[in-house]
Specification:
By secondary structure, this protein is mainly β. The protein is about 10% helix and about 50% strand.
Length: about 950
């Protein structure tokens, strides 16, 4: 079956490649402007997936990239939204607060451990199995004023940053430029939504000292009402800010310093009790004659009936007559559950437990770049970040009388539940040798994570503490990670045009130390634990440093079959470090690293068929996943003889994951565009010990849908250009069902599939002014679907669900200022005269544009023809002077681009001289990254200025 599956997808990829034989097209910058002079005219984005600027269509990886404009128009506000637009992204939350990513699962191609980068710095604890949530605020805290957002799937680590088995998500903030420009944006909508965003770019000293400041805020009412404390849950209240300073003391040195932060304070999120077993047994109580009677949540008579002499006899007789004798721990629980069911999913009974959601993140990033020579660059990226988080939740909000499971320390709204610091350092050398045939990167990475204050985890859990008493402890986790890596791409053009070989290697050393103490256990070992923190809260326990190390590698071969078709095969290997468990027996104290190795085959193609411009990218992959770390419930008996259920991490399985991904863009007409994506993910355990799950290898895979797809349609109204542009777009997404539990006895194990429809109307450049207005609607059909669960029915007798947000709608107004935003008045057409003037005689052009391939200075055959034509027309035009001005892209360092500009101008000048133009009649000018946009022959602005301008000058009739 697997062979047929792979063969079918390979055949599909081959057909796409064969159908896509078209010429190359020009590259766009991250603002996602339409290209000109290319075959498709489709948008293009420059990515740094391989730590150098490349067109996304020439990168032999599964990469999905969004410009800031695309993020806005496709309404991607957080990582959860990516699942509606990117293949193989799976996010499941156990809370409806979409900011609480720490409480759920983020997986790429079914694999956990995706690394999130901000400004090229990986964010989050190195031990993401034990780390409790350093990534959860990144969605809102960084998703504004970006150059682009990149999602890369598959093992990563031989090029830069942190080792990752699943892939990475890279936020790239917009860097300062030489223009005084920016924007102001405001949004208002239902649920009293108020959002403001701004950015301002200030060139203090042109080319030398540039500053960009940006910020964002949102305040919105919640959509779930909490009856007890009479407040709205699932609200929004956050601020984010960013200051970037770009310094170029010389043409060869560039330094980018960024300070950014994020703060939010909300009422927390809602969990709805959906299933309840009032007869769930937690313990037993010895009674005369009856013996050990099971103690349950709420089935049978109240225990107070036996304690009251007036009712003791009747209660005892009632117990004798019951088929299954039991005592009610909480009377009235069934009635409270019925009351909650009557409220629906947008209200909860709540209790006196204060729900809190607070985050405070801030940090500094510094990237230093030195172009030692044209072919050798040194880069150093350093980061220091602070993460503070306080979250509490009531997973059983059935009233103040039923504190069955609360997470968090009651009454604590000051002390942070998580308080950590992260320091990272990466340095590397990048170069090109062997006549530019070999591009290589070599470097090292260091990371240190440690607490800067107590981190508290508290709970009132009936299953662990029959009286519902609060138990909590402080934990202290320290992680260190070190790595060295090397990566290279070698061109085999001499043998097969367009063929390239890739190889990379990485070795990583990881260490982890874990310690925890009870409420008043002090900071050291004088009072070791005799049981668990649930029974002995005044103790201290620690695990020594655990050491892990492993290699990683990447191999690949790519073939640029034509300028518009790329076919590639790649394979990678990465590892996920192990860690320590506390409060368990010695044989469970340590869990080992896990490894994955994948093989990926892909094709990227731009094509035109019957006037339709298209881009179709597809890939298939196979992953071997070994020594998988899974969370399991184990039953332990403490020194007092009491039984406890603990969650531990253990290496329990091996598996394979097979799948395929597709992304397409289709420009049906100049006014209609479709975008589509789809993915198929099939994970299967090949070994899963029955001691962890009786289902063995049939154990389902958590948090991964087998199928997911989406399609976006955009229609530009055919109105006069002087009015601006009005575009109507709609996005439909479908997300398959996924498992959220593998435990026996669970009543809710599968989150059903769901679909969602978003709509948007954008009016840009209103009447020629730099003003845009948008009307948007998210979840337009107001679908309510389950997006997370707390499946502990088998442990505590209940299951709570979190639901999606309701329909949101609103208006966004944006004002842009700076170059290119000036108002252009429409000029009235002159009335026709009675006799039209005679047509002018044909004349040779007096200026020419010669375009170059990305990062190249050699003339293409088309470019050489243009230069030759310019030389031939110079004589009849009586030219005595020709100015040749070179330009480069808007990416890369200024020094490098200036040198590339001059080399391009020199290539044109050499060709002009070869065709008879005297060298003293040619003036060379290099402008680097200045004047980035020029009009092309078809009237479309060329977003990347890979060009040389030839302008005639001099002579009386020139």
């Amino acid at each position: 079956m697997r062979t047929r599956f792979l063969a079918a997808l390979c055949g599909t990829a081959s057909l796409l490649a064969i159908a896509a034989d078209r010429p190359a097209f020009a590259q766009n910058q991250a603002q996602a402007q339409p290209t000109a002079g290319g075959s498709s005219g489709l948008e293009e984005i420059v990515v740094t997936a391989r730590r150098r600027e490349e067109r996304v269509q020439t990168v032999p990886l599964a990469v999905t990239a969004f410009s800031q404009a695309q993020l806005e128009k496709q309404q991607i506000h957080d990582i959860h939204d990516l699942a509606q637009h990117v293949p193989s992204v799976a996010v499941s939350l156990s809370q409806s607060d979409q900011n609480a990513l720490y409480s759920g699962q983020l997986r790429l191609r079914g694999l956990p451990g995706a690394t999130i980068y901000v400004a090229d710095v990986p964010i989050g604890n190195a031990d993401y199995q034990n780390g409790t949530g350093l990534q959860h605020g990144l969605s809102e805290g960084f998703a504004y004023d970006l150059d682009d957002l990149e999602v890369i799937t598959g093992p990563q680590g031989t090029l830069f940053g942190k080792n990752s088995v699943g892939g990475l998500i890279n936020y790239k903030p917009k860097r300062p430029t030489n223009d005084f420009e920016g924007y102001i944006q405001t949004t208002f909508g239902n649920y009293s939504d108020k959002e403001n965003e701004f950015a301002i770019n200030i060139p203090i000293v042109e080319d030398k000292l540039l500053v960009r400041v940006a910020g964002q805020m949102q305040q919105r009412d919640g959509y779930t009402y909490e009856e007890t404390q009479q407040k709205w849950l699932d609200n929004k209240n956050y601020y984010a800010w960013r200051i970037g300073v770009l310094m170029r003391p010389t043409d060869d040195i560039e330094n980018y310093l960024m300070y950014d932060g994020y703060w939010q304070d909300s009422n927390g999120s809602a969990d709805i009790v959906a299933f309840l077993d009032t007869g769930h047994t937690f313990s037993t109580i010895p009674l005369p004659i009856l013996g050990n009677v099971p103690l349950t949540l709420g089935n049978g008579p109240n225990i107070s009936g036996l304690l009251n002499p007036a009712t003791a006899t009747a209660t005892f007789i009632q117990l004798l007559g019951m088929r299954h004798p039991s005592l009610a721990l909480y009377s009235g629980l069934q009635q409270a559950f019925a009351a909650q069911q009557a409220l629906g999913i947008r209200a909860v009974l709540g209790d006196n437990f204060q729900k809190i959601g607070k985050d405070y993140f801030y940090g500094f990033t510094d990237e230093f770049s030195w172009d030692i020579t044209d072919n050798l660059t040194f880069k150093n990226i350093a980061g220091a970040r602070i993460f503070k988080q306080l979250a509490t939740d009531d997973y059983t909000p059935l009233g103040a009388a039923f504190p069955i499971l609360n997470i968090g320390v009651p009454g604590n709204n000051v002390n942070w539940g998580e308080n950590n610091a992260q320091y990272t350092e990466e340095f590397r050398f990048e170069g090109r040798t062997l006549n530019d045939k070999l591009s290589w990167v070599a470097g090292a990475y260091l990371e240190y994570d440690h607490p800067i204050g107590d981190s508290e985890l508290g709970s009132a859990a009936l299953g662990n503490s029959i009286a519902g008493a609060v138990s909590y402890y402080h934990f202290h986790i320290v992680d260190r990670s070190r790595a060295a890596f090397v990566h290279g791409d070698y061109s085999l053009d001499d043998y097969v045009p367009g063929l390239k070989f890739t190889a990379g290697y990485r070795y990583t050393w990881d260490e982890e130390s874990v310690a925890a103490r009870g409420t008043s256990g002090g900071d050291g070992p004088p009072n070791p634990c005799t049981g668990t923190f649930l029974t002995d809260q005044n103790c201290y326990q620690s695990a020594p440093f655990a050491h892990f190390s492993s290699y990683g590698w990447n191999l690949g071969i790519e073939d640029q079959v034509t300028p518009d078709i790329l076919v590639y095969v790649r394979s990678g290997n990465a590892y996920r470090p192990g860690g320590s468990n506390l409060n368990v027996t010695a044989n469970l104290a340590l869990f080992q690293p896990e490894h994955d190795t994948d093989v990926e085959i892909g094709v990227k193609a731009d094509w035109e068929l019957f006037g339709i411009h298209g881009r179709t990218n597809a890939d298939i992959y196979h992953t071997d996943y070994k020594n998988i770390q899974v969370q399991n419930l184990v039953t332990l008996i403490d020194a007092a003889g009491k039984t406890h259920t603990n969650t531990v991490n253990a290496n329990a399985a091996t598996a394979t994951i097979e799948g395929g991904e597709f992304q397409g863009v289709f420009e049906l007409t100049k006014d209609i565009e479709l975008q589509a994506h789809a993915s198929y993910t099939l994970p299967q355990y090949s070994n899963y010990p029955v001691i962890f799950n009786p289902a063995g290898s049939e154990t389902p895979w958590l948090y991964v849908p087998k199928w997911q797809y989406g399609i976006t349609g955009t229609y530009h109204l055919p109105i006069d250009e002087s009015w601006g542009d009005i575009a109507v777009s709609m996005t439909y997404s479908w997300y398959g069902h996924q498992y959220d539990s593998v435990s026996l006895g669970e009543i809710y194990t599968i989150e059903p599939s769901y679909d969602i429809l978003d709509a948007r109307v954008d009016w840009t450049n209103i009447m020629g002014y730099p003003v845009d207005v948008s009307f948007w609607m998210r979840n337009a059909l107001d679908n309510a679907y389950v997006q997370g669960a707390v499946p502990i029915y088998s442990q505590l007798g209940f299951t709570s669900l979190s639901y999606s947000a309701p329909r949101f709608w609103g208006f966004t107004l944006k004002y842009r200022f700076g170059p290119g935003t000036e108002h252009e008045e429409a000029t009235a057409a002159e009335p026709p005269s009675s006799a039209p003037p005679p047509p002018p005689p044909p004349a040779a052009p007096k200026s020419y544009l010669v375009f170059f391939d990305f990062d190249k200075s050699a003339l293409t055959s088309e470019g050489r023809n243009i230069v030759d034509q310019a030389a031939a027309n110079a004589g009849p035009a009586h030219v005595t002077q020709i100015t040749v001005t070179g330009h480069t892209d808007t990416v890369g360092s200024d020094a490098y681009n200036m040198r590339l500009s001059r080399r391009r101008a020199e290539s044109v000048a050499s060709e002009l001289e070869a065709k008879g133009i005297r060298s003293d009649e040619i003036t060379l000018v290099a402008k680097g990254k200045r004047d980035p946009l020029v009009p092309t022959g078809d009237g479309v602005r060329e977003p990347q200025n890979r060009r040389v301008e030839i302008v005639y000058g001099g002579g009386p009739t020139s």
